Amino acid sequence: MYSRAYKAVISAPPLLWVCLFLLLPYAIMFAHSFWLVRDGFLVHQWNLQNYRALFSNPLYFQVFLRTARIAASVTLCSLLLGYPLAYYLSFHAGPRKELLYQLVIVPLWVSYLVRGYAWKTILGSDGVLNGFLQYLHITHEPVSFFLYSPFAVVLMLTHIYTPFVFLPIYAALEHIPRPLVEASQDLGADRRATFLRVILPLSIPGLLAGATFAFVLSLGDFLAPLLVGGPSATMIANIVQSLFGAAYDWPLGAAISVCILLITVSLLFTTERLEKRWSFK
Amino acid sequence: MTSANSHQRSPLLTAYAALVFAFIYLPIVVLIAYSFNRDGVGGFPPRHFTLDWYRQLFSDSAIWDSVINSLLVAAASVALSLTLGLLAALALDRASFPGKALFRRLVLLPLILPGIITGLSLLMFAVFAGMQLSLLTVFLGHGTALISVATTELFAGLQKLDRAQEEASLDLGATPWQTFWRVTLPSLKLSLIAAGLLIFTLSMDEIAVTFFLIGRDNTLPLEIWGRLRRGITPEINAISTLIFAASVALIVIWYRLRARTVGAQAQELLEHP
After folding, report:
1. In a domain, A149, yes or no
2. How many domains in chain A?
3. Ordered domains of chain B (ranges, CATH)
4. For residue A160, what is the domain's CATH number?
5. What is the pTM of this model?
6. Which side of chain B, N or C, has fewer Cβ within a 10 Å radius?
7. Does the residue A45 lie in any domain?
8. Please, which residues 163-222 of chain A have a Cβ atom closer than 8 Å to chain B?
9. How far apart are CA B7 and CA B4, in angstroms?
């Protein structure tokens, strides 16, 4: 029903824009990863030195492992908080459901930076938590290990991604046909069995989507370590950021970025296939 | 059958959900409370109420300059990503061209990609193209990355659209152009507003992409970031509280609009079934 001219007019502008400002920049980043810096200048000489450095220097591998561990912890914690919350809202909240749903959404609109900053003021050695503990006479001196640790990074990122994990799980739970749940109960399954054998399997696609989101975005985060993590929580994106700043080695930074990009894309691809496999049609 | 399992009592689960809510809201409450504390951020409990930090904030011209910069970038990003996102959603919905699946993935990629990748690739592009870093490059970054949000939202809107109305318009002699302005666009009004508000807030708040594309003029988040490096001051609590209030106001406006539009549609349906 749509003419060829109409189709051309709607397709051409976004296609051109995306090629120019998304595809081309990725291509330039990819090209950079095969160049090198000599005497403080970028040299356009094709080589594999950056990737070789990445795989031969154990430092990068260690930081990468730490990053993966932090991202996995964030994912796990967000699921442990987000899933029961979604389950409660979907099956037990009754008439307050809509209001509670909005209450989960509101913090999504609150700045990432603002929430990170709030944790910094809570966890600091002269922060609110220390003040609280001393007020209750639980401790008598400021405790300094709350802030500037991998724990603080996991806490902050979990706080940020819990609502993001909640959303797709809640959507999946809401889509479960209620007669299925009732049938399970009518046929004698108790609540636990109904959850494990009906509700949980049907919510797997939502769970996977939320988990992927939290994992991938934590994997590439560099602000939380700068804000609350300190040196012991340096993540892979911090290395990239310093290579693009003071350390001035764009090609090596680009090579790490390409690795992050490839990991992200392959994770998305895997999740997509798993989601299809688990989706209920 | 309606509430056989929607009202089951489960005190343990209820308590757990309450705890999760407490965790989500604790930092926000602390942040707001300490913006009114005379003795600054820290210590417990906050003792002396004051508005001094807000007074200090209102006479801080660097902050307000950065607010204006952020508003400019956000408004321009909304215009750009809504326009391109609408076209992209239309193209995905009704055109077919080689590489369409790839195009869809590419458009949506910035939504799930860590900001550092988008920011750095655009930085390298800007240097490659000989562009000076400025608010313009920041706008380019926000506008391009947020096309993903507009496309998702508007594509969902298009899926719910009644194609018969467009067909009727075309059959009755309207040009595709007229049909677009008088039928397609008005029925997408709600999705357009939702996407616009979301893009606006996301742009106002963006820091990971902006970090690499900023020139001399700061946006609000980068101004706050710069101050954080120098130490904590309750002035940041005050501006954060105001940002929070503005976000909540936007959400309320959105619900009002939605309620009104849905109400109007329902009424129309009743009058002209």
Report:
1. yes
2. 1
3. 63-229 (1.10.3720.10)
4. 1.10.3720.10
5. 0.89
6. C
7. no
8. 163, 178-179, 181-182, 185, 191, 212-213, 216-217, 219-222
9. 7
Q: Closest partner residue to A220 among B85, B117, B212, by Cβ?
A: B117
- Residue A189 structure tokens: 């399954």
Classify burial at A85, counting beta carbons within 10 Å of its beta carbon; exposed 0-12, middle 13-18, buried 19 or more: buried
In b/e form, how buried is each residue of A22-58, taking b as 16+ CB within 10 angstroms? bbbbbebbbebbbbbbeeeeeeeeeeeebbebbeeee
* Chain B (185-214) residues lying within 8 Å, Cβ to Cβ, of chain A: 201, 204-205, 207-208, 211-212
* A47 inside domain: no
Nearest to A85 among B17, B26, B248 (CB): B17
Chain A contacts in chain B segment 112-151 (CB below 8 A): 112-117, 120-125, 128, 140, 144, 147
d(CA A202, CA B128): 48
pLDDT (tens place) for every residue of chain A, 281 residues total: 678 888 888 899 999 999 999 999 999 999 999 998 888 888 888 999 999 999 999 999 999 999 999 999 999 999 999 999 999 999 998 888 888 998 898 887 777 888 888 898 888 877 788 888 888 888 887 777 788 889 999 999 999 999 999 999 999 999 999 998 889 888 988 888 899 988 999 999 999 999 999 999 999 999 999 999 888 899 999 999 999 988 889 999 999 999 999 999 999 999 989 988 877 65
Q: Cβ contacts of residue B118 below 8 Å, gap of 6+?
A: B110, B141, B144, B145, B208, B209
DSSP-assigned letter for residue A94: G
User: What residues make up the domain containing A91?
Assistant: 55-278
Residue B93: partners with Cβ closer than 8 Å, 6 or more residues away: B155, B158, B159
Neighbouring CB atoms inside 10 A of A91's CB total 23
- Is residue B38 within 8 A of residue B54, CB to CB? The reply is no
